[in-house]
Write a structure and sequence with these properties.
By secondary structure, the protein is of the alpha+beta class. About 25% of the residues lie in helices and about 35% in strands.
Amino acid sequence: MEITRKIIYLIMILPLLLSGCNQEDDIYEIFTSDTWHWNATYTTTNWEDDNNAKLHINLNSEKVYDINKDPNIYIIKFENDGNFSAKGNSISFTGNWGANPKDHSVSITNIKLQGNAAGLDKMFYDGIRTATFYRGSSLLLKLFNSAKNEFIQFHPQSKVKEQ
């Protein structure tokens, strides 16, 4: 009876162990699972331990509120075919993207900007345009600059509520 119980237990947890494989390796699950909504930009001294990151010097609580008050602006949608489209408050832009799960690099290329990027629009645009590395899952995406000391953070748009 004890061996049967252990076998049943093993059969029950085996799918959890196998499905728990590193989700960070599935770039399509990470990037294309939803439309992403920018929620803030941060600075950090350690990109692998960015939980102690600080809000970017150019952001205060009022600006963070402005970023998050409408879930239909400051969004980016990555497509499976390597294209993306993004929309700020008064800008929109498109381009191509690619990612390498081995070194967590990301490339954002062939950007075509419509509108004048200023203020929060510029911070949004620059955060995406200069992205060189990524970290994330289907619940949170962080795009880092080449120095890995600044990142723009996104949540799935489907989880953002209007304020």
